Every structure is written in structure tokens, then in C-alpha cells.
């Protein structure tokens, strides 16, 4: 299962991480074709067993809202969950020399675990992510979308 990590940055930073899923399915059949490293390939038949196609998933003030039917059964989401995290994931650093600061409140970061696979949508209103942060940590001059932003890491 993959995890999506999310946090908000104010050149500064609010944190969140979550899980979108991706990779193979436990209930898929894989067929390989060819023996040559440069021309061989695999085909995976996916069994679509997901029971969740949308909803609100939250941990305190953090939430991920997915519109109804934005996910198909092939996302294989069965019990999506939001959670708090005590530390940022490895490789995701806050660079104070560049003026970055994690301004996320309630936790250092948040995570969202979806299921076995990611999903895509063409509708910009299908997914809403809400991350609590402390506005008092953001200087007035820096309260712009260029300075305050969310980092999302799909693990």
C-alpha cells in the first residue's frame, strides 16, 4: 500500500502525507511476454474489488474529500484513512536556510492511505485537501500562494 504525505510550506511549510496506492494488486494475474530485457513486457489483469468510490476521510482538522464516484472500483479502495504523523517522511526536508518553516498544526504532517492503486480525475473539484496551519507563523508579507504551499509526497 502506498502512502501520500502532505504538509503545508511557507517557503515555510505545512505538512501532509498520504497514500495513493499504486503498484500491483494482490488479486491480479500477471503474464510475461518475451525473454529479451529490451523487448519483453508484462500484462497485469486487474480484479476490481474496491467498495469505496468517494467520501470524507479525516484526522482532526485534516481532511481529504473525494467526490462520490470519483474513484472506480478498480482503485480497490476498501478503507481509506487519514492519520497524523510525528515526523516528515525520509527525503522530505524543511530547508530553514531557504526560509522554509513547517507551519502545520495538530501534527508535524498528515497521511492519507487510499488503497492499492492511485486514481485520476479530470474534474478539478473532485478532490479537496484541508490542512490546518498556524497563520501567525507566517509573516504578513509572505501570506501569498507563492510563499505558502502544500507539499504532497506520493510514497
Structure in words:
The protein is mainly β and 155 residues long. It has one domain (4-24, 50-154). It is built from no helices and 10 strands. The strands form 4 sheets. Strands 1, 2 and 10 form a 3-stranded mixed β-sheet that branches. The chain has a 3-stranded antiparallel β-sheet with strand order 5-6-9, with no helix packed on it. It has a two-stranded antiparallel ribbon with strand order 3-4. The termini are close together.
List keywords for this structure.
single chain; 155 residues; mainly beta; 3-stranded mixed β-sheet; 3-stranded antiparallel β-sheet; 10 strands; extended
**Total domain units:** 1
Distance between the termini: 9 Å
Summing up helix and strand content along with how strands pair, one would put the structural category as mainly beta
> What spatial form do the alpha-carbon principal axes imply?
extended
Which sequence of SSEs, written as H and E, runs from N to C? EEEEEEEEEE
Instruction: Work out the oligomeric state of the chains in this entry.
Output: single chain
The portion of residues forming beta strands comes to: 25-35%
Instruction: Give the rounded overall mean pLDDT.
Output: 76
Q: Tell me about the biggest sheet?
A: 3 strands, mixed
Q: Helix coverage percent of residues?
A: under 10%
Overall radius of gyration: 18 Å
Q: Give me the number of helical elements.
A: 0
Strand runs, count? 10
